[in-house]
Design goal:
Distance between the termini: 38 Å
Helix content: 40-55%
Strand content: 5-15%
Low-confidence stretches: none
Strand order of the largest sheet: 1-8-5-4-2-3
Radius of gyration: 19 Å
Order of helices and strands: EHEHHEHEHEEEEHHHHHHHHH
Structural class: alpha/beta
Length: about 375
């Protein structure tokens, strides 16, 4: 049996940030902390959101790293407590939204972040007391604005996930206008993150037809809109569809992900490389698609993906993604991103323990993970 739960309050359209005052009142946020990153602040996007907020934030934390960390979470938590905040407005990509979720958890739950991670049995420890979060995405990739999880690099170097329905933001405020000035490179990397989410959730073996329908719709939108959004960042239709696809990918998360994410999570924890999550997903996806293609009964799903992505029936999906990555200017493999074979030993055990490994269509072993890494190099 599949658990089917949708989801949270969503405001989605051009100019949606104008709704912030009323939505903050509904969420019960009267003393907000705004969480963002230095890039979003420098681009003036955070200020656009601040201008629309009422009440204004008591403080702005812009120290979110490209992969959120426990250390940054504790810094933001200190600011939250210092100002007596009662909620958060997260403005940025998945990193800012995930960090805000972690702060919202620790603001209302005792102890260290580690104990709330999925693989540490933390799901049952997270209660409805989580502080309210309003998520305002400025990229179209992670879908964290409607996601029940947050991925954080802990102090011990592990990149692990918090997962609970109580972590879903009270409001996802999705305004495609905030993505108009995204650089082409970020548009490509975040867009392939959305594609990976839609593809992996559709292929995951759980029986959840609503999630599969949403994932397929998202894959269709990415296929039709990503290259257009990259070519012209102010293409309103392309930006709207990419933000919708990003949100849809995360809506389908409850069905499970797979080996793409099981690999990209520990790879993303490697320091000091600090690789972008969406780019990692794009680079390892072809190898994983080939690995899963032989699973009994999965052929119709590959055929259905090709249909919605408007690809010829004879198309090899893995080859298609490889060629798409090339057209988008993404790295040709993990080696081009700085990964070496010497790093495999540290990645493999964490990939096998990652919460997404269990929902891959084909079981993972140490040998198969190593083979996937080598193929993705």
């Amino acid at each position: 049996m599949a658990l089917i739960t949708y989801l949270t309050r969503i405001q989605f359209d051009f100019g949606a940030i104008k709704m912030l005052p009323d939505e903050m009142k509904l969420a019960g946020i009267t003393r907000p902390l705004l969480v963002s990153d230095k890039g979003v602040v420098a681009a003036g996007v955070a200020q656009r959101v601040i201008d629309a907020m009422a009440p204004k934030p008591l403080a702005v934390f812009d120290g979110t790293p490209s992969n959120p960390t426990e250390a940054a979470t504790m810094l933001a938590l200190a600011v939250y407590r210092e100002h007596g905040c009662d909620g958060l407005v997260a403005v940025g990509g998945g990193s800012a939204m995930d960090l805000a979720k972690a702060v919202a958890l620790l603001a209302t739950h005792p102890g260290a972040l580690t104990q709330y991670m999925v693989i540490e049995g933390g799901v049952a420890r997270i209660t409805p007391a989580v502080a309210p979060v309003i998520a305002v995405p400025t990229t179209s990739g992670t879908g964290s604005e409607v996601g029940r999880g947050a991925v954080v690099i802990l102090g011990d170097g592990r990149k692990l996930a918090l997962v609970s329905p109580y972590l879903i933001p009270r409001l996802a405020l999705c305004d495609p206008e905030l993505t108009f000035d995204l650089p082409a490179k970020i548009t490509a990397a975040t867009g392939m993150d959305a594609m990976a989410h839609c593809v992996e959730t559709f292929l995951a073996p759980a029986n959840n037809p609503p999630a599969e329908a949403i994932a397929l719709d998202g894959a269709m939108r990415v296929a039709a809109s990503l290259e257009r959004a990259m070519a012209n960042g102010r293409d309103r239709d392309a930006r709207w569809n990419m933000m919708m696809a990003s949100m849809e990918g995360a809506m389908a998360f409850q069905k499970g992900l797979g080996a793409v994410h099981a690999l990209s999570h520990p790879l993303g924890a490697i320091q000091p490389i600090n690789m972008h999550h969406g780019t990692l997903n794009a680079v390892v996806m072809p190898a994983v698609l080939r690995f899963n293609a032989g699973v009994n009964g999965i052929g119709w799903k590959y055929a259905r993906l090709k249909q919605v992505m408007n690809l010829p029936e004879s198309t090899d999906l893995a080859d298609h993604v490889t060629k798409l990555n090339a057209r988008l200017g993404l790295p040709t493999g993990l080696r081009a991103m700085g990964v070496t074979e010497a790093m495999f030993a540290g990645v493999i055990p964490h990939a096998l323990k990652d919460h997404t490994a269990a929902t891959n269509p084909r079981p993972l072993t140490a040998e198969s993970v190593e083979a996937l890494l080598r193929e993705a190099m």
